[in-house]
Amino acid sequence: MNSNTHRTVFRTCSLCEATCGLELQVEGDRVVRARGDSEDVFSHGYICPKGTAIAAIHEDPDRLRRPLIRRNGQHVEADWDEAFAEIEQRMLPLLEEHGRNSVAVYLGNPNAHHLAGSFYVRPVLKSLRTRNIFSASTVDQMPKHVSSGLLFGSPGTIPVPDIDRTDFLLMLGANPLESNGSLCTAPDFPGRLKAIRARGGRVVVVDPRKTRTARAADEHLFVRPGTDAMLLMGMIHALFDEELVDLGSVKDHVQGLDSVRVAAKSFSPERVAPACGVDGETIRRLARELAATERGVVYGRIGIHTVGFGTLASWATDVLNILAGKLDRPGGAMFPLAAHSRPSKGPGGRGFKTGRWQSRVRGLPEVLGELPVATLADEMETPGDDQVRAFVTIGGNPALSTPDSGRLEAALENLDFMVSVDIYCNETSRHADVILPPPSLLERGHFDCSFVGLSVRNVANYSPPVFEAEGPSESEILARLALIFGGQGAQADASELDAPMLRGLVEGHVGDPESPLHGRDADEIIAQVGERPGPEALLDVMLRMGPYGDAFGEKPGGLSLPQLEAHPHGIDLGALEARVPEILATPSAQIELAPESILRELDRLDEKLAGEEPDGLVLVGRRHLRSNNSWMHNVSSLVAGQTRCTLQMHPDDAEERSLQAGAIAEVRSRVGSVEVAVEVNADLMPGVVSLPHGWGHGQPGARLEVAAAHGGVNSNRLTDGLPLDPLSGNAVLNGIPVEVAPIAAD
User: Fold this and answer.
1) CA distance 362 to 378
2) Alpha helix (H) ranges present in 545-646?
3) Which CATH number fits domain 614-742: 2.40.40.20, 3.40.50.2020, 3.40.220.10, 2.60.300.12?
4) CATH architecture entry for 142-335+580-603
5) 0.85 cut: is pTM over it?
């Protein structure tokens, strides 16, 4: 390309869930300016610091451009055929000798941000045929999937707050002014919160920290970490007790109401108040306010999910919205309709089940086809049949992001073989025998398969690659891995997987009597897709056959990938609309309020309330606007300024332990300890201390120069892998008992 060529490119940012539109000024092979796309149909020009750094990530000299193979203890560059041959030569004999369950896979959250992760990870897992599948979901969001599956029949049927039309927003465990929103895709969350208040609405934040979001709200309430389920049950009790239950538009589609009424009797606001730290009258007032506001909604996120009652808290959030008549109505909790989704055939379905198999060592149940990542180290350490001896990571850094990481790092060193698909040699992939780097964010096409299904407005936006990739695409890398693991050999062409995947998708529609394509010629349909890369070909079919699609000519004017390509600022598909009952996939075709597993959890919560609360400090995490994943710490502009990896403490807690601002303290839990600088901060609830996640850089063998200079400490050396949310297997990352003491002077 001519180095003087100037062009303007519009692209959706893929660095977090907000899906903001970017306007990139490109000179030759460099992005010289990045700013918000003022014409983007969803973000309207909003952008956060991460978006402006997307060019720096692309140009990062530490980003890998060629595969690395470990030779004599050192990573050396190799060509692609050599790297795939190494994987075939070492992985297949291991699987043959020790069985398919001797390999484990870890999927990081970047897979949810990219087309290849959405479509091509599944063939890799299918070809490996292992039950040892782990992901970032069990350190983050699995409770929401489980509660949604139990209530609505599908783990992907997740209601989101319709914040653009609400007049009362109650948020628990969420800090969208730092995170940009999670399981709630909403660019410019700050502006949307201001709009609620500008139209006379109210925003209430419940959090053990007075976060940026809490400071921007009308009201902030401190809550003890891990007790959100108690507070929510207190509100549910109040709705029944004060005869405020009104199911609204879903009243004919709910079962189990009486069971919830009975179960809630023991959770009066006055009883739960001492445990959660919010007084009983305030809990009743919140319930009344929710019930009285025509357009109101409760939204809970990471802080209430990463605790011992995470699934129960997630369930209680949705049940509150149902009981107050706020589900499936404007301004309440609504269900998005993604452009690429297959139209629902409901109501009714097979429902949702977990526990189809258990982990080998601890007997923990499978959820959504995976096991809790908190037991990954157990599977590597414990001898016996099916002991994990090989490991594949795809876009993740579990050495920093998962519980009891000290044990996991030691276990990684003792593996027989490890493969990482990653753009960096990071704290995890430094242990890999082969690292396969996918193209940069700007060298791949982009469509937010995951997040348009969680969006507060129905939109669609496709971004073509900005630059030509230096190596194979991520889908080609994953396809070749799938073919190797399936026995087709290291020389197999990725197209040997692309074509069957596309044909299988098309023939599924052709053979479906309820599809507009029923009975049509599959070859004719495939010809209309044309010569596109594998992920884009699949996406085009899904868009055309989605709820807004053209059905390959059956619905003229409908959506397709070519149409999205012609609209670089995206297409606005409209505000969220009512979708009950057709989205219900439960066997009863109803919203099932009171599954047995939830009622058992309520019994456990009742026992917890009856016991004594432990004294001492508890640890919670925290987010920062300039950081989403650990690899963003390798961008200078995102780590500039004051040190962010500090232990925040309330002044009273610091004084009691003779700690001053800047002092180095030892933080100790049952499983580990770290030494970190203290930041005295009155925005914390007394008894609560806070460390950010994703730090602990500077490990030998990692190639992250900027991150190493801002190393910080790994908070997950303190996270105990034993306590879990029993229904989802989610790790307990908040409310960890810790001791904090000054480091004695040398």
Assistant:
1) 8
2) 561-565, 596-610, 636-639
3) 2.40.40.20
4) 3-Layer(aba) Sandwich (3.40)
5) yes
